[in-house]
Write a structure and sequence with these properties.
- The chain has 239 residues and is an alpha/beta fold.
- The protein is 40% helix and 15% strand.
- It has 9 helices and 9 strands.
- The chain has a 6-stranded parallel β-sheet with strand order 3-5-6-7-8-9.
- Strand 6, helix 3 and strand 7 form a beta-alpha-beta unit.
């Protein structure tokens, strides 16, 4: 399995607070059947893309060395979780922020209320530049909760969706679970990811999270969202 959304890199955003936490998350991921993780730290500063990429890549390289020493069988891939704001409209080359140098770009909207029209314009900008935006956790957005048409508008503009494992498992509330499951069953959510931040709460304990999934989420759906489509992204194949 490959996780396309994680905050396992230490001391770069609100995810892993130190390298020990990064290693513990990777070990937990391996114990739960993962063999690949895309490191997607939050990205917000469109004026300093190069600085972000240098810091991210240095931390990935260090973590790779430690995982090899610890014999933890996890392959790390580079990426970012882009916060969509007006900076994207004038930003330079964004290729280094894609998932494993592919066409796929993980991005997020604000969790609270925001200017939907402007946000969709920023999403279209990614598409116009040749990227395929993967919208992170649409089931969590306030706008998705109050206006389901927001989800349809994102889809019409070329986005695909990634839902959080905790949402699918019902750990983030009934409405988030309902939306996440509907998106999977409708074929709109191509990915289930960890959005891992820490070892206690948002983590890789997938055996526990998935121990009592609704019966409509079959092994076939799980395999598609955790193995098949993530592998397509890593290989830069059409999904």
């Amino acid at each position: 399995m490959i996780d396309i959304h994680s905050h396992i890199l230490f001391d770069i955003d609100d995810g892993a607070e130190n390298v020990e936490t990064s290693v513990s998350l990777c070990r937990q991921a391996a114990d739960n059947g993962f063999n690949g993780i895309v490191a997607t730290p939050h990205f917000t500063d469109y004026k300093n893309i190069d600085r972000f990429v240098m810091e991210r890549d240095a931390k990935i390289d260090l973590l790779r060395e430690i995982l090899e020493e610890e014999e933890i069988d996890i392959t790390l891939y580079s990426g970012a979780e882009l916060y969509l704001d007006s900076g994207i409209l004038t930003a330079g080359d964004l290729d280094a922020l894609t998932i494993n140098n592919s066409r796929y770009m993980l991005c997020e909207f604000p969790l609270g209320p925001f200017d939907v029209e402007r946000g969709l314009l920023e999403l279209v900008e990614l598409c116009d530049r040749g990227y395929t935006p993967i919208v992170a956790h649409p089931e969590r957005y306030y706008e998705s909760h109050i206006n389901p048409e927001f989800i349809n508008r994102m889809l019409r503009r070329g986005a695909v969706f990634q839902v959080n494992a905790d949402s699918v498992a019902g750990n983030l509330g009934g409405l988030s679970q309902e939306i996440a499951i509907d998106l999977i069953l409708g074929g709109f959510a191509k990915f289930i990811a960890s959005d891992a931040h820490d070892i206690k709460h948002r983590n890789y304990d997938f055996r526990r999270k998935f121990s009592s999934l609704p019966s409509v989420i079959t092994q076939t759906y799980l395999a598609s969202c955790l193995i098949d489509f993530p592998e397509d992204v890593i290989s830069d194949e059409e999904i």
